[in-house]
Amino acid sequence: MTSKKLNMNLPSADDLFENVAGKDVFDIERAIPIPINKLFEFPDHPFKVKEDEEMRRMAETVKESGILQPLIVRQREDGNYEIISGHRRKMASKIAGLEEVPCIVRNLTRDEAIVEMVDSNMQREKILPSERAFAYKMKIDALKNQGKRNDLTSAQLVHKLEKKTAREKVGEEMGESRENIRRYVRLTELIPELLELVDEERIAFTPAVDLSYLKEDEQYIIHNIYLRDERTPNVSQARYLKVLSQENKLTTDKIEEILEKEKANQIEKLKLNRERIDSVLPSYIKTENQAEDFIIQCIKEHNAREEKKRALAR
Fold first, then answer.
1. Partner of 176 for a Cys bridge, out of 9, 33, 46, 180, CB 3.0 to 4.6 A?
2. How many domains does the chain have?
3. Tens digit of pLDDT for each residue in 92-131?
């Protein structure tokens, strides 16, 4: 019997490892070592990277175990790289004394890189209002730019914006209402000094949004009053300031008069240094609620010991 060879049109070994563009699939997401001195921050990167106690602990981990998750970068025209995801890992590596770190290089346009940079960094546990505000604004602007491109197919455009505004799309992806996205973006109109007070929770979010409608010189008057008296406006005061500003009736004397009225947030409160607390908390505590519960439990145990001492001394 003559054997017949079946022609199953199986791909060659080379074909198995090529994508539709003819590129080796292993080259797409392969991490390569890149010298730290060739890595630069993403332009206008909104997320703050501080050399605080948490960063020093991260550096110790890097020193012991290395970088477990590669940085995401894109190459610049000068041959260096800008970081899309991994600004904190880069600083920790530098503190730990590493000369190079593993990176995945992606070929992205600036707008594509902005979207990925925002999405990857928004996964962090702690995000300041200022970081959220500028990140949302950057992503909205990038999506708008992508929507204006004329080198996309109609199917790509429908998929990209799905007939929704960029603000609506960002809201859906971030779990925020369209209105809340708008209010966060308004914070980018605050002077840096007032925005820092928002990050420090000395000005609440809602009054901060209203203050963003004040003219720059009016905002500086608000800040100067804070430096002098540690007074900041509450919701109703901020709303009134906004109305007067829009009517061009807001003067320095009027601002002074409005902020002189005593309110709840001017009652002196216990202020705790979060960095000092974080430096002594057990490593398994990750959230604000866990930290609060732990501190309260420690205080209760301390009070119980003191009560027992007093009872024994009677």
1. 180
2. 4
3. 999 999 999 999 999 999 999 999 999 988 888 789 999 9
